[in-house]
From TrEMBL:
Organism field: Potamilus streckersoni
Family according to the record: Belongs to the glycosyltransferase 68 family.
E.C. number(s) listed in UniProt: 2.4.1.221
Protein name: GDP-fucose protein O-fucosyltransferase 2
Statement: the UniProt record of this protein carries the keyword Cell cycle: no
Length: 431
């Protein structure tokens, strides 16, 4: 149930109360997958540069998942999902250190498993029985640089001071998602200019350990499985948000935005047989805007509008799309949000405010997903310049079948004129 409707200068700010009475809150404690193959499966682990945000990490998952997919054409490999932790943007103090968060908090593992075999890190530790990883490769560039791009990979000396050190017993100690007891038996740096799937021969022939860990996996690029390929989209479609987070978002849509899947033509099916065309989805009777603030004010000062200017831009969409409600997804502090709300007179402005219970259970990452989910169902969406948070909403809308005009819009900087303000690239879904 949602409570506390705060009226603020003629507009509403919404607080959502938990729906804990619903029986959808089961943690998925699945036993690890069993395979029919005669060969024992091997495990692939990976991690990403600690500075990268949640939504870029989702993109790295797609690359590694497609590598695992290709590996499984010849050998059984299971992808170990890297626990989420200590991301730069997850700053809610009351939550303390947001570490060791399993993927099931955010994503639907059953859905991921329709693409490739995956297990949580904790389940991996149980299967192995010891906190050990066989071989770790730390991906880095080539010290000498390069003049033409070609695919290559070589074991090399580490360029940076490595995050891994050997202890007195010869065990390699490293960050390993804040699991201090975990160690590796072997460690090396690898200079690589490589597509993700090109790691396959190396993994199959040059490594023998039961588990192999690739650190700095963002160094691997999509290559032919880029955003334009069906392979990208297959992996992307498998990345469904957890049922619980979707339910919270859907309940908010229904209650405050008069939006539900039936009316809006956004009903979900098993992704393996869901295929929509642009324009199939209508969306709820509201506009959604991703109003990225905080570090973006400095990082992209030219392309991020003032609040006043943002409101002006948003108003232009309301009549053409015949909507009177605006949902705001934002990382802005409350004062900035209130300031934004005051720029509107009649239009109702909504924001999802988690209850203490939702926040504690799903953390900053879960709240951001709920925001994305609500944005993905709007009749029209306006995003922020080069924000991966925005890009993931674009993709969600491609999957649901929205028209591209209703999706690929962005806020322009206050000083940018129409010519300068290039609209986002349209990434059409392919099957
Ligand atoms: N709840 C919520 N959180 C947001 C919103 N916008 C940004 N954030 C938070 O800030 C993070 C932004 O980092 P990313 O997800 O990597 O996306 P980005 O906006 O491209 O930022 P960079 O990748 O750092 O350039 C998100 O993951 C959220 O944790 C929002 O609208 N709502
Ligand atoms: C993998 O093994 C092959 C054959 O021994 C060797 O030529 C190649 O350099 C190795 N790859 C790496 C990255 O070490």
């Amino acid at each position: 149930m949602f409570t506390s409707l705060v009226i603020f200068s003629g507009c509403y700010m919404i607080s959502a109360e938990d729906m804990a009475d619903k029986d959808v809150f089961q943690t998925s404690n699945q036993p690890p997958l069993q395979f029919g193959q005669a060969k024992e499966p091997r495990y692939l682990l990976y991690d990403v540069n600690p500075g990268e945000g949640f939504n870029l990490r989702r993109d790295v998952y797609i690359r590694v998942a497609n590598l695992v997919k290709v590996l499984n054409e010849d050998e059984p490999w299971i992808l170990v999902l890297p626990p989420w932790g200590r991301l730069y943007h997850w700053q809610t103090r009351e939550l303390g250190a947001q570490i060791k968060i399993p993927w099931s908090t955010f994503f639907d593992l059953e859905s991921l498993r329709k693409h490739i075999p995956v297990i949580e890190f904790e389940d991996y530790l149980k299967v192995i029985g010891k906190p050990v990883i066989g071989e770790v490769y730390y991906l880095q560039s080539y010290k000498e640089g390069w003049d033409k791009w070609e695919e290559k990979m070589d074991i090399r000396e580490c360029i940076d001071k490595p995050r891994y050190q050997q202890d007195e017993n010869g065990k390699w100690r490293g960050p390993f998602f804040y699991y201090d007891e975990v160690y590796a038996e072997k460690f090396a740096c690898m200079s690589a200019q490589s597509y993700a799937v090109s790691m396959k021969p190396f993994l199959m022939k040059n490594t023998t350990a039961r588990s192999v860990f690739l650190d700095r996996a963002e160094a691997l690029i999509h290559g032919m499985f880029s955003e334009w390929s069906a392979e990208y989209w297959t992996a992307r479609r498998s990345m469904r948000f957890s049922r619980e987070l979707r339910d919270i978002g859907d309940a908010f849509r229904e209650k405050y935005l008069r939006s539900n899947d039936k009316k809006d033509r956004t009903e979900l099916k098993d992704w393996t047989n869901m295929k929509r065309k642009h324009g199939d989805a209508l969306g709820g009777p509201y506009l959604a805007v991703h109003l990225r603030r905080k570090d973006y004010l400095h990082a992209h000062s030219k392309q991020v509008p003032t609040l006043k200017n943002a409101a002006k831009q948003i108003k232009k969409f309301l009549i053409p799309y015949d909507v009177q409600r605006v949902f705001v997804a934002t990382d802005a502090p409350d004062e900035e949000f209130f300031e934004f709300v005051q720029k509107f007179k009649k239009t109702k402005i909504y924001r999802f405010e988690p209850t203490k219970e939702i926040l504690e259970k799903y953390k900053d990452g879960g709240v951001a997903i709920i925001d994305q989910w609500i944005c993905a169902h709007a009749r029209v969406f306006v995003g922020t310049y080069v924000s991966t948070f925005t890009f993931r909403i674009h993709e969600e809308r491609e999957i649901l079948g929205f028209s591209q005009e209703s999706t690929y819009n962005r806020l322009c900087g206050s000083e940018e004129d129409d010519k300068e303000c290039e609209q986002p690239t349209k990434w059409s879904i392919s099957y």
